[in-house]
Amino acid sequence: MRLIYFGTGTFALPTLQSLAEHTVLVVTQPDRPSGRGLRLAPSPVKTLAQSLELPVASPERSRAPEFLELLQSQEADALVVASYGQILSTAVLESARCGGINLHGSILPRYRGAAPIQRAILEGETQTGITVMQMDKGMDTGDIISIERLPIGADETYGELQDRLAELAASMALTWLPKIVAGDYPRTVQVNAHMTLAGKVEKEEAELKWDGSAEIEYRRFRAFTPTPGPFMKTNQGLLRLHSLRMSDLNGAPGTVLSVNPLTLALDSGALQFLELQPEGKKRMSGRDFANGARLKVGMSLSENQ
RNA sequence: CGCGGGGUGGAGCAGUCUGGUAGCUCGUCGGGCUCAUAACCCGGAGGUCAAAGGUUCGAAUCCUUUCCCCGCAC
User: Fold this and answer.
1) I want to staple A217 with a disulfide (CB 3.0 to 4.6 A). Which of A170, A176, A212, A262 is the partner?
2) A282: which nucleotide lies closest, measuring CA to C1'?
3) Cis bond upstream, residue A228 (ω within 30)
4) Which nucleotide's C1' atom has the smallest distance to the CA of A240?
5) What is the ipTM of this complex?
């Protein structure tokens, strides 16, 4: 089997690992300036590919003619795509004998798009899964080859769930690609009427609000942990939130209901702030934060108080 | 050189502007109270104030340099 692997994010890592011996070329997004100091940083997939000593290509535009030639020259059996980050043109997909095979982090046709895992958690879903799919020119609209499901834990974060899904994707890829290359696999057309969209995540969505319900804001916390990173504006400054739990307590929004564990009331319900991080500080327990900020039960962290 | 915050007993912080023998909450150790306790009371230990140099009678605090940590933006 000769495979070309398209991937960028951490979701794509386990699958690349499991298919490495069949992979003749890894395609990933170009290095981007990132982090403090704006130094150029390689994608997670590029880093792994290099340690596996696989050839790497990072075209700015995957549809560029010279890149298309490179793809065609590989005479690959299939393109395997997982969290690549660019739309692949029909010409690109047709550069391999069996076209593009996508590993998508949802039960298609639900949650088509860029952020299926985050959106599923945010919507309060209790299960999700991986769909192996024959790509076509649309966004996650191709024929379904296989679906496997996973329950979503009540306290599970996006990062944790993504890790489990990524492992599932890797094992499914290992199972199905030989069959696909051999031409022996089922194809089921998606029922478009059941589709939903899972749009890209914006940073502002990760802000928890005092006037939200604890249940929904907790889902928000889970959906955007660890990236882009949930946060909350308080009269103590911006707090990044690392670990929360639901609380049974109630009170006026923003009120400190308990100092150990640090429990703050929202509009409906309350949340325990187990680990957080003030701007410019290291992450710390809610208890330590309460100590340093001299918080007492009854005080408010709501901005305008 | 993208913008910014910070390094003070084990933890989180105050004190730095207006130099003058280091303070708060928590933890820890010992004792007490209690049926009991993560609760309460009493007492104790524990700090080269990131590092180096400089100014000064005197520096956590002022000046210079270095190291380390972190947030935002990307």
Assistant:
1) A212
2) B70
3) yes
4) B71
5) 0.88
pTM across the whole model: 0.91
User: CA-CA distance, A276 to A283, in Å (whole number)?
Assistant: 5
For residues A226 and A209, what is the distance between their CA atoms, to the nearest angstrom?
18
- C-alpha triplet A83, A86, A87: angle, nearest 5°: 110
Q: Which residue, chain included where needed, has tokens 């999700």?
A: A128
The model's pLDDT over A103-137, given as tens digits with 9 standing for 90+, comes to 999 999 999 999 999 999 999 999 999 999 999 99
Residue with tokens 């393109």, as numbered in its chain: A79
Structure tokens at A258: 């308990």
DSSP codes joined into one string, A184-239:
----B---GGG--B-PPPPGGGGB--TTSBHHHHHHHHHHTTTTT--EEEETTEEE
C1’ B27 / CA A134, Å: 58
Amino acid at A268: S
Structure tokens at A43: 């994608």
Tokens representing residue A5 in the block: 């692997």
Nucleotide lying nearest to A281, CA to C1' measure: B70
Give, in Å, how far the C1' of B49 lies from the CA of A293.
20
Using the C1' atom of nucleotide B69, identify the protein residue whose alpha carbon is closest: A282
Query: Euclidean distance between the first and final Cα of chain A, in Å?
Result: 64
